[in-house]
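Hey team,

Filing this mostly as a record. A colleague (T.K.) asked me to run one chain through the structure pipeline before their review meeting, and I want the input and output archived in the tracker in case anyone asks later how it was produced. No errors, nothing strange. Just documentation.

Input sequence:
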Amino acid sequence: MNRAFPWVLAAFLALVLVSFAAIGCGGESSASAEAPHSTTTTATEPTCPPALARGWQKLADQIDAAVYCPSWLPDPLVGRIGGQWEGIHSVTKEDSYLIGFIWFQRDAGEVHVNLRGYPGETKVPSCNGKPCFSGERPFNRGLFHTGCGGGPTGAGEKSIFSLNTSIQSIGEGNYGRLGAEQQKRYTDANVETMFGEPAANGEPDEQPGAMPEILPSPDFGKNIDRCWTCRSMFMQAWGNYGTAWPVVHQWLGVRPDLGRGRLEFVPQVPQGQSSVRGEDIRLGYGSADVLASHTGSTYETEITTSWVGARSVEIGHTLPRGIRPVSVVLDGRPVHHYELRQTNRGNEVTVGTTAGHHTLFVTA
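Output structure:
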């Protein structure tokens, strides 16, 4: 059996050492008519590049388990086991594995990607009984800079960066994992440090509203307690990527493409909540209000746009994966032609409409 499954790794950034477990994402595909009243689009099944498949298949055979083949890594890295960029190749007697790729150039920076697998494990691994990838109380609960097995000594680097935490929150959202111990864990980790950090006795870790570069961590402590020249940046603007994008793009589903006159609203209500609302969301010279709610088998999306300049507007809702719509009603009228997109985050039901005020009900 072919056990080498493909995985597209989200990795980035020169000048920053990034070491993390692989996070996958799907691709686009062409639409095909499935029923008279709907069009279904399914994410394309990714493939492991032939040049990489042999090495990953050998690893899969060695541990007798599925592994992840990275079909993309940040330039100049190539995910070929045994290739010039492979810097770590470790398989334990328990068949967990760590495959690392690294590029370094003096005075230019470093790109470092680790792929870590724990076949058969259903719980997040720990290091000697302590958290392996993310913090726990009394510290912040965001993502460590480097997890178990990484870092210069192999012990990890247990400093919680707001940027790493942001990326993890968005990665969770890409798969519809919006719940308390999923995306919300990481959005909360970045938010609390600005307004009420438990590790800082309920006060902000720095100035109120400022998100530091490094959050209260086992290897770092509290930013506010460190000397002026040995603390991290007190205001890390790009960390807010992990709060604004999940809320506006993933929860409220706002997808502007105003340069082409297009605008979509395809929200997804986080697990554990019944609704999510955003008001006066800036879009070009105009704005939009969005309300999404979920009660039982009914999903509602209400939008109001003003001066957004969009010629094409789509309104929709994201259902859990495997759930299909039974009825779709827009502004009180049944809809017989809608699109159903099967994505990694769930099944997106969308209907074409116009700018203005509209309400969509989807019953599943």
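Quick notes for T.K.: The first strand starts at residue 4 and ends at 8. The helical segments are 50-63, 162-174, 183-195, 241-251.
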